[in-house]
Amino acid sequence: MNGRVGVAVAMIGLAACNGPADLVLVNGRIWTGTGDTASAIAVRAGRVVAVGTTDDVERWAGSGSERVDLRGRFVVPGLLDSHTHFLDGGFGLAGVQLRDAGTPAEFARRIGAFAATHPGEWMTGGTWDHELWGGELPRRDWIDAVTAETPVFVSRLDGHMALANSRALALAGVTATTPDPPGGTIVRDATGAPTGVLKDEAMALVARAVPARTELELDRALDAAARHAVARGVTHVTDMGSWAGLETYRRAAAADRLPLRVYAAVPIATWERLRTYVARHGRGDDRLAWGAVKGFVDGSLGSTTAWFYQPYADAPATSGLMVTDTAALRAQILAAHGAGLHVVVHAIGDRANDWLLDAFAAARGAGSAPDPGFRIEHAQHLTRDAIARFARDGVIAAMQPYHAIDDGRWAEKRIGPERIRTTYAFRDLMDAGATVAFGSDWTVAPLDPLYGIYAAVTRRTLDGAHPEGWVPEQRITVDEALAAYTRAAARAAGREGDLGTLEPGKYADLVVLSGDLRTMPPEQLDRARVDLTMVEGRVVFRRDGT
Hints:
By secondary structure, the protein is an alpha/beta fold. It has a domain at 95-207: Diaminopimelate Epimerase, Chain A, domain 1, CATH 3.10.310.70. The chain is built from 19 helices and 24 strands. The protein has an 8-stranded parallel β-sheet. The protein is globular, with a radius of gyration of 24 Å. Residues 1-16 have low confidence and may be disordered.
């Protein structure tokens, strides 16, 4: 259908609605997500009632209608982040900041400075990146002298390994005689003593010693995370969280303290509890929903725990880890799917993705409940056959484009020049017809869709080493990246009926940007700014001076 005709038809379809609009936004450049062109939107009762030219939409204005002159600015649907660790992000905003610590000395200095102002408190978060100082893993002896009685348990940015100081190891009872748990590794020195780094399931050995967060702490973290999100144009997040997180969201929603939408997932091992919870409480509402379970097949590339067919090029003694027993995970997938729950599972290595596609196919063929949309979280390193299967099997690839320009600095040394050809294969997956939904994986990467769009379109690594793009054949267009953060992300959350596009009948969740992403030079996309964020036609963020 011709775009302009499509707008006219949509407006005629709602022309019989009674009453003026509550809000009209005019004189803009609006990316509706439907292929239609528009310059104005009318909103009533939180939903879009008209999209078209400014003259068309002005007819919906009444004496009490609020009018916003967009002054030619670019408008997109509210941006959905399909994969976050949202409350962890809220805590991280107030925690020790290690993401850009570029040397071991700076890493230790920041930890020591934070410990000095928070004596005796558990120090967590951090999100360090050892690749910034050449790839050497940190050790507890780097920080023991500056942390004294402060227990430290700070994670690598991917969340698949963490460093504990001697105090934290002692509180957790981890010693040289502690065995590696299934699906995890305790990194040891030449004498067999723990260096302080624990990978994947080994992290639980220390995590269980960390005091549980109080409700007040959780509520404050949510408030901080929500403010951070809406300032970046994020109006909906999927949280790969916990039961404590779900109850935190419910408290906020009940108090009308949730300025954005949340889809809360809980661990797949608790699928029976969620089945009972859904039977008792339903699946939430348009502001807060639940019903998804999250599992893990493997670890991460940066921690050399992603599960591959072939060994790592720079660690030939390993081809990664299955962090969950595959027989147990397969049983959980089939059971959760059969219970009508939404199954989303982390897979990064090529072998992990193939295994998971097979497990999803088995669940679908077992005569279970209608498929709610299987998702593979990350879908990072794929075989050519797997790329075709995503489209053929209807599996959603929930991917995080910022990882490509971050990991692209060093990924080739991990897996060599051939396997990187289908790493973060945005172009190939889209060309195959697969649904690709974008997100951030915050706190692993910044919670900022504009950075993600820049990454997907340019694939210019953070170190500046690939000005034409790392694996440039996997670049996509601005329109495709926007669609991945809107339409596709709405589908991945089961919300394509009311979110993801700006068209009559859908919620008026929208973002006003400082520049038109379609006409900006690609290398400047990350410089665009969010001027205004609306959820259901209500302003939840306005940039100062706009």
